[in-house]
Design brief:
Elements lengths: L3 H10 L12 H7 L2 H9 L18 E4 L5 E4 L3 E2 L7 E2 L8 E6 L6 E6 L5 E6 L9 E4 L4 E4 L2
Amino acid sequence: MLTWKDVIHHATHGNNTPDRRVEKTEAEWKALLTPEQFYITRQKGTERPFSGEHCSRYDPGVYACVCCKTPLFDSNLKFSSSSGWPSFTEPVKNNVIDYIKDTSHGMVRVEVTCSTCDAHLGHVFPDGPAPSGLRFCINSESLVLIDE
């Protein structure tokens, strides 16, 4: 199980190698994504809290990256954090998320991106429920739910 110590280690010493890579030009991403998805995933934007379709959705399935369709989070590990964004306790595999130290906005956080295509997903915090203690705070616009 992933822990906050593991997250910090990855953010400071490097991430796991993904199973595959997807690389596209900015024009190719713009052609594939809605303007909001492009803003969030390619320009590191953040959607307004409680505005995303996945914020209060608890249907079964796997949440995948909207850009490259890499499975990221299992719906069974989604929880209500009351933060305004979909929250998960851990990713489906250790190599699907990259962890990046983020010092923007006058604070230190850990940004999470899709390791396959570098899409900005959100941030991870050490204030989640047991057993991992992690809260992956993810923009709805960066996800697509694949029904089981």
